[in-house]
Amino acid sequence: MRGHAQREQGQEDGHGQEHGHRHDHHGHDTCGGHGAGDVVERAERLCQTRGLQFTRLRRDVLAAVAAEHKPLGAYDIAERMSAPGRRVAAVSVYRALDFLTEQGFVHRISSRNAFVSCGHDHGEGAGLVFLICRTCGGIDEMTAPAVESALDQTLAGAGFTPTSRILEVEGECGACRGRGDAGENA
Q1: Could you report the per-residue pLDDT of 23-49, keeping only the tens digit for each?
Q2: What gap in Å lies between CA 141 and CA 144, rounded to an integer?
Q3: Three-state DSSP state, 84
Q4: CA distance 115 to 130
Q5: Phi and psi based region of residue 137 (left: phi greater than 0; alpha: psi -120 to 50; beta: remaining)
Q6: What are the pLDDT digits (tens) for 129-140?
Q7: What is the value of pTM for the model shown?
Q8: CA 45 to CA 135: how far, in whole Å?
């Protein structure tokens, strides 16, 4: 799994609480650790190979999402990209996000209406599973072949052709659950 909502030791969790674990490298062997620069360089290479324009706006939006390591909405991205006297419009960010999503450089987390970067290739049509921790806000990404196979059978039986195969599962990550169990036993 690759943790898009990675947090360094000692960073706040968004609720003023310190968050003492990271969401990355939990067994998803195709991901590896990708910094914002790596993600942007990969996207640039792939766009060149695919004959697509990787405009400055698309590059900047991807860099903003990849640098944050947590889900960001379009308005958050626009705010991060804006400078005094130079405001970036959210509609422009949405257009860039549409392109980046279509190319697989970012994923949309529907339940959060937010986006996370993806620094690797899942392959055409791969189903993704996002594990969303309600306690710390961490989001880990993985593929699950057994789930994909069962979903394929269900979809075929229903005669349904999906345009997107992203599953979001909310709950509590192992580290937060472990911290809760430790607190109960104290």
Answers
A1: 443 333 333 345 788 899 999 999 999
A2: 10
A3: coil
A4: 12
A5: left
A6: 889 898 888 888
A7: 0.70
A8: 37
Distance CA 13, CA 136 (A): 6
| Structure tokens given for 157 | 């039986």
Q: Specify which residues 142 forms β-bridges with.
A: 129
Spell out the alpha helix ranges (H) of 3-161.
Answer: 36-50, 56-68, 74-81, 90-102, 145-158
Output phi, psi for 166, to 5 deg. -125, 125
Q: Give dist(CA 120, CA 138) in Å, integer.
A: 19
d(CA 103, CA 118): 10
Pairwise CA distance, residues 101 & 151, whole Å: 22
C-beta neighbour count of 106 within 10 angstroms? 27
Joined tokens for residue 170:
């909310």
